[in-house]
Amino acid sequence: MNIRIGNGYDIHKLVTGRPLILGGIEIPHSLGLLGHSDADVLTHAIMDALLGALGMGDIGHYFPPSDPKWKGANSMRLMEQVAEMIVSQGWKIGNIDSTVIAERPKLKPHLKSMRDSLAQTLKVDIDRISIKATTNEELGPVGREEGICAYAVVLLVKD
Ligand SMILES: Nc1ccn([C@@H]2O[C@H](COP(=O)(O)O)[C@@H](O)[C@H]2O)c(=O)n1
Ligand SMILES: C[C@@]1(CO)OP(=O)(O)OP(=O)(O)OC[C@H]1O
Fold first, then answer.
1. How far apart are CA 149 and CA 106, in angstroms?
2. What is the DSSP-derived secondary structure letter of residue 21?
3. Burial class (CB in 10 A: 0-12, 13-18, 19+), 16
4. Residue 102 CA: which ligand 1 atom is closest?
5. Average pLDDT per run of 10 along the chain, which is 159 residues long?
6. Rounded to two decimals, what is the model's pTM?
7. Could you tell me if the CB of 102 is within 6 A of ligand 1?
8. For residues 75 and 128, what is the distance between their CA atoms, to the nearest angstrom?
9. What is the C-alpha to C-alpha distance for residues 24 and 11, in angstroms, rounded to an integer?
10. How far apart are CA 16 and CA 47, in angstroms?
11. Cross-strand bridge partners of residue 147
12. Residue 1: its pLDDT value, please?
């Protein structure tokens, strides 16, 4: 069996007047993430990890922030395209582990919906997808609630 590993990281600013979307789920909060797309920082980190495992660059290469086509893009639709790249090369997702670092809001009540949403989009069982949440203990820009960041690691397998 062949295996490939990939890691991804992303960070977006928190601002007023934008929805907070993580893993394709809108989470009630007074602030949202700023970006050219929907700024779904978790989905972006996972996409970068998937592309990294394939040695195929990063999301900015396929969906350039300079291209008006991706303005307001739903990141789950972009991830569908990345999933197709994986499948077309004969790879399957072994598992994904991720961490969202956010001072607020509490993400624990939303983690199951976020995992469900990612599993459905990637067409894998939910038990292959892990999302953890932690604060930054009030340290740095994330600790000051200026932004939210996410890390992801993926394992791809091929028979
Ligand atoms: N945005 C967040 C951050 C954390 N959690 C949950 O709280 C637990 C404790 O977090 P610490 O940063 O203080 O270690 C953590 O294990 C998460 O379950 C959360 O739900 N949302
Ligand atoms: C998906 C894209 C499209 O503009 O989203 P952005 O909101 O610009 O987010 P970023 O993580 O800075 O870069 C990835 C982009 O390709």
1. 14
2. E
3. exposed
4. 1
5. 97 98 98 98 98 97 97 98 97 98 98 98 98 98 98 97
6. 0.98
7. yes
8. 20
9. 16
10. 26
11. 13
12. 87
